[in-house]
């Protein structure tokens, strides 16, 4: 069976509270995805098998969220030719700066498209994944355009005070 176009992988169950925002955004855009826990450190063989097989299984974009010593996005990128979008988790100890630096500072030759720390990064990773797919899928392009138009329409011109 062919995989859906997007894989959302994360280093731990504890990352799901952030990564579910990527999933919800893809759901809103009607872009199918698989979400899996794949830890670079605790399940390295699962990471290897997933990333080596991802393209052949039919995935087209990988969104990878991890925190702390966040090696998952970079290792996945090292093992697959697919585009990898990295989402740094907002860690407790260093508020995600550790995650950000771990993901963003890739050596030349193995790129990871690194997003913002936390929820904003997860949402934007989903939007970027949809944008990549939209290059060759007019239906996704249309839904993305409509999503952006709804967002624009939802921004009030004037602020309101809380009741
Ligand atoms: C990383 O370690 C995970 O991506 C997670 O953000 C962090 C902490 O994991 P847990 O100890 O909460 O499972 O590998």
TrEMBL record:
UniProt keywords, alphabetically: Isomerase, Lyase, Purine biosynthesis
GO molecular function, one term: lyase activity
Residues annotated as domain PurE: 4-155
Pathway where it operates: Purine metabolism; IMP biosynthesis via de novo pathway; 5-amino-1-(5-phospho-D-ribosyl)imidazole-4-carboxylate from 5-amino-1-(5-phospho-D-ribosyl)imidazole (N5-CAIR route): step 2/2
Binding site for substrate: 12, 15, 42
Role according to the record: Catalyzes the conversion of N5-carboxyaminoimidazole ribonucleotide (N5-CAIR) to 4-carboxy-5-aminoimidazole ribonucleotide (CAIR).
Family: Belongs to the AIR carboxylase family. Class I subfamily.
InterPro entries according to UniProt: PurE_ClassI, PurE_dom, PurE_prokaryotes
Reactions this protein catalyses: 5-carboxyamino-1-(5-phospho-D-ribosyl)imidazole + H(+) = 5-amino-1-(5-phospho-D-ribosyl)imidazole-4-carboxylate
Pfam families for this protein: AIRC
Enzyme Commission designation: 5.4.99.18
PANTHER family in the cross-refs: PHOSPHORIBOSYLAMINOIMIDAZOLE CARBOXYLASE, PHOSPHORIBOSYLAMINOIMIDAZOLE CARBOXYLASE CATALYTIC SUBUNIT
GO terms, biological process: 'de novo' IMP biosynthetic process
Enzyme class: isomerase
Official protein name in the record: N5-carboxyaminoimidazole ribonucleotide mutase
Keyword 4Fe-4S: no
NCBIfam families (UniProt xref): purE
Signal peptide positions on this chain: none
Phylogenetic classification of the source organism: Bacteria, Pseudomonadati, Pseudomonadota, Alphaproteobacteria, Hyphomicrobiales
């Amino acid at each position: 069976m062919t995989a859906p176009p997007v894989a959302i992988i994360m280093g731990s169950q504890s990352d799901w509270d952030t990564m579910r925002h990527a999933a919800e955004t893809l759901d809103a855009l009607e872009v199918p995805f698989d979400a899996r826990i794949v830890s670079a450190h605790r399940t390295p063989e699962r990471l290897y098998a997933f990333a080596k097989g991802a393209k052949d299984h039919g995935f087209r974009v990988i969104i990878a969220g991890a925190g702390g010593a966040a090696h998952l996005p970079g290792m996945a990128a090292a093992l697959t030719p697919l585009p990898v979008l990295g989402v740094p988790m907002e860690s407790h100890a260093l508020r995600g700066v550790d995650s950000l630096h771990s993901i963003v500072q890739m050596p030349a030759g193995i790129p990871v498209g690194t997003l913002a720390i936390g929820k904003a990064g997860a949402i934007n990773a989903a939007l970027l994944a949809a944008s990549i797919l939209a290059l060759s899928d007019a239906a996704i392009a249309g839904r993305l355009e409509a999503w952006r138009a709804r967002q624009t329409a939802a921004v009030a011109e004037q602020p309101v005070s809380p009741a």
